[in-house]
Amino acid sequence: MRSSTLRLLGFTLVFCLGVGLDQPASARVACQTLNKQQVAALFDRWNQALQTRQTDKVVALYAPDATLLPTVQNGPLVGRDKIAPYFDHFLALAPVAKIETRVIETGCNVAWDIGLYAFTENGDQPGSHKQIEARYTFIYAPVHGHWLIVHHHSSAQPVATH
């Protein structure tokens, strides 16, 4: 494994061990897992929600206390009420995401999808489009019986220097 993958695995293990420790054993969720195709489908669901251009449909895919480190705004944005205004603006651009490359891993009550994606958005002129390349991380966890985004990080690809 690459060192970056090992660091992420370590972070995720710490995250998973910390989740729910302040809850009584009776309130903790039994171990739930997803396969890689199911995790990929969670991204597809998010991308389809973007295409509705309805903020409430997108934000419903985030856990109530989710964190978002957005592509073109300072963050973190914590909670649906802070995340929603970001999507109000972003959805006006009619974004459509396409995965370029990804790494999906799963565990007990956690799954992550990390990679590169590109957005096609409305351009500055009517009828024009532009493409934005970015890096992303989605971390999913089951919340009240539904797999939701608990953390989303998106950052523009750095410009290559020559």
The shape, in one word, is globular
* Tally of DSSP β-strands: 6
Helicity range = 25-40%
Q: How much of the residues is beta strand, in percent?
A: 35-45%
Largest sheet: 6 strands, mixed
Residue windows where pLDDT falls under 50 for at least 5 positions: 1-27
Q: In terms of structural class, how would the helical and strand content be classed?
A: alpha+beta
- Rg, rounded, reads 16 Å
* Run of helices and strands: HHHEEHEEEE
- The N- and C-terminal alpha carbons lie at a distance of 29 Å
Continuous helix count: 4
**Widest β-sheet, arrangement of strands:** 2-1-6-5-4-3
Mean pLDDT across residues = 84
Walk me through what this model shows.
- This protein is an alpha+beta fold.
- It contains four helices and six strands; from the N terminus they run αααββαββββ.
- It has helices at residues 3-18, 36-52, 55-59, 80-91; strands at residues 62-69, 77-78, 96-107, 110-122, 129-143, 146-156.
- The protein has a six-stranded mixed sheet with strand order 2-1-6-5-4-3, with helices on one face.
- A hairpin with a 2-residue loop joins strand 3 (96-107) and strand 4.
- It is globular and about 50 Å long.
- Mean pLDDT is 84; it is low at 1-27.
